[in-house]
Structures are given as structure tokens and as C-alpha cells.
Amino acid sequence: MAKTILIVDDSASLRQVVSIALKGAGYETLEACDGQDGLNKLKGQKVHLIISDVNMPVMDGITFVTELKKLPEHRFTPVIMLTTEAGDSMKQRGQAAGAKAWVVKPFQPAQMLTAVTKLVMP
């Protein structure tokens, strides 16, 4: 059975690029336009990995990861931050919230898929 990955980003075109790359590698994808939408999409849904932007309206990626980790069923779901933020302080905030990897945009799909393969839950 294919593993499901949630893509959380306010850019529809970026969600599409990530989704195409993941589907090409055999994954199922769900999409959300911000952190709040992401939390809503997770209700009753099994996901094996989440890819999230940092800078989004409504709920940013760091807050999203913090809220996600409070949910018992998603406490161990790995999160990859896919963002334009390259600064160490933002990376540290992401790690403190529970993000497992940090991929800076613009990204190579192969680089992202390598991170996905390493982190996706069995």
C-alpha cells in the first residue's frame, strides 16, 4: 500500500511540483494551504510524513509542527520543512518544534526525495 504524505504550503504551484515528484516516486499525497488547513486534513487520516513550508498565512509552519506534535496519533510523524528560510535561528526553531529535516527552496526534487526516503514512517 502506498504511503501518504501531506504537503502544507500556501503556494499551489509549489504543492503541485512536490506532489508530482512524490507521486512519481510512488507516494500518495494530500495538500493543505496553511498550518490550520493541514491540522484539519489530518483528522482521521494516517500520514507517513509531512512536508511543510514555514511562512504561511493563518498558521505558520513552526506553529503547525508544534501543534501537530501535541496530537498523540501524530507525535512521531516526521516533518520536513521546505522553505526559503535558510537562517540557523529559524532552523533551530524548526528542530525545537519537532522538524526532522530542512530543505531550502529552490530545491531539487531528487534532494527532497532522498530526505523523504530516509524519514518516511514504515
Automatic annotation (TrEMBL):
It comes from Azospira oryzae (strain ATCC BAA-33 / DSM 13638 / PS) (Dechlorosoma suillum). Coiled coil: none annotated. GO terms for molecular function: DNA binding. Residues 4-120 form the Response regulatory domain. Keywords: DNA-binding, Phosphoprotein. The modification 4-aspartylphosphate is found at residue 53. This is Response regulator with CheY-like receiver, AAA-type ATPase, and DNA-binding domains. GO terms for biological process: phosphorelay signal transduction system. The keyword DNA-binding applies. InterPro entries: Bact_response_regulator, CheY-like_superfamily, Sig_transdc_resp-reg_receiver.
